Amino acid sequence: MTKEEFLTELQDTLQRDDQVLETDKLSDYEEWDSLSKMAVMAFFDKKFGKKVSLTELGSFKTVEDLIKFAGL
Amino acid sequence: MAQSKFKHVKVSAIATVVPQREISIYDELQYYGGNVKKVDRMRKMVGFFKRRVVDEGVTSADLALAAAKKLLSDSGVDKNSIDALILVLQTPDYPAPASAFSIHRDLNLPQTCIAFDVNLGCPGWVYGLQIAHSMIESGANKKILLLTADTPSTKVDVSDRQNAPLFGDAGTATLLEYSEKELNETFFDLGADGKGYEAIIIPAGGARLPLKFSREADYKYIAKIFEPIDTANGRRVNLTDKYMNGLEVFNFTTNVVPEKIKDLVKYANVSVEDIDALVLHQGNKQIVTSVCELSGFPLEKCSYKTFEDFGNQTVSSVPAAICHTLGEKISSPEGIRALCSGFGIGLAWGSCLISLSGVKCSGVSDFELTDTIQSRSQLIDYWQKKFKDT
To answer: Distance (Å) from the C-alpha of residue A9 to the closest C-alpha of chain B?
Structure first.
């Protein structure tokens, strides 16, 4: 998966209307709630075979952190 | 590893009862500032849609009794032949005795039929099924009525948008019988992890934090217990409400349950292709699809429709999903092989691989309010008189 594909998939996962950018802060998203966090955990598990721990989930501050975690 | 298999037990009938009152998340736009888009998002992401909730005064035992009556009348089974009644629930009518006894009375079951409650939530039907299988295969019992029920809507405030749209009330009944003839084996894999004891919990109302007013000093604690707590995500709760760490539960579910389902498939020496349906606890759409995919099952074999139409019915969600989505298939003589899995509070999980054929399935029926449901005032008068007369 490329970075661009990742950003599109993330936008769909978060059910966000606006485009998702690498520099975006997650706390600025109205959609960054417990539902989204759950969806992101499932997204990493299903698409990358990676388990996100609750500590890791809490450490994600930007979209870039998510991209790094995905290993892209 | 708590694995077991049985070959002389058959599920012969199953029924689900839900309250008539249906609430759609679209009826509650006021809690989302009238923002339909926000509600659409929740529907798409989590599957929030409709749920059934009980009217004031209706309890879990009422729903379980109604499901039992529906099963008995549709299957035509002689109730005098039932020798055990197991009720799985976490909201008994009274702290003591077990609610199974009032159902025993109301069904007019014989003295030869034992009765007891099992305190379990979401994994409870599979646990109850395993207990019933063990009792029958051992020769101790021949015909067991397994009931499940919960009224989670009564434990959350309607303004609590994290939990209120999630849960639906329901009761189910399953009849299990001894078969002289050897049947397709039923396989179980059960487990528990007490380290997750506090992940889903109602802290007050039990023996640790009792709601008891016997001494003046108790008032101080009662006031504290009911003191409103404002949570980080904008909910107002108190210690008698259900606490759930949703992310921790989701994490446990996706880490543990798929592996346990794979273990069961291996233990039964079958492949995913040999299994017709995967019936998962209807936690929410995200949980069902994640567990399904991570367990290696195609999404076509698994449904979250019961969650969308009725909500998360906790202990009843697996049998309710069978009644709701597989009724015709399990009633046919050929039947199906289903892998059922329940998981959650405890934390605990239970999965079984079971052949279901020729089952008398009553589907999902509406609960009918009867005049035997007493109001709180009536009950208080009744019990005060009882105490005075002793």
So the answer is: 14
Q: Which of B141, B163, B284, B312 is catalytic?
A: B312
Catalytic residue among B104, B133, B281, B324: B281
Chain B interface, best mutation among A15, A16, A40, by max B CB count within 10 A = A15
Query: Could you give the ipTM of this predicted complex?
Result: 0.78
The answer for residues whose C-beta is within 8 angstroms of residue B376's C-beta and 6 or more apart is: B57
**Which domain, by its residues, includes B146?**
2-195+243-366
Helix (H) or strand (E) holding A56: helix A54-59
B238 classed as catalytic: no
Query: Domains of chain A by range and CATH?
Result: 3-70 (1.10.1200.10)
pLDDT in tens, chain A (72 residues): 888 899 999 988 888 888 889 899 988 887 788 778 888 888 898 889 888 888 888 889 999 999 999 888
Q: Torsion over CA of B362, B366, B369 and B370, rounded to 10 degrees? A: -20
Nearest-neighbour CA in chain B from A67: distance (Å): 20
Given an 8 Å threshold on Cβ–Cβ distance, is B294 in contact with A36?
no
Q: What is the pLDDT of residue B1?
A: 57
CA atoms of B125 and B340, how far apart (whole Å): 10
pTM given for the model = 0.92
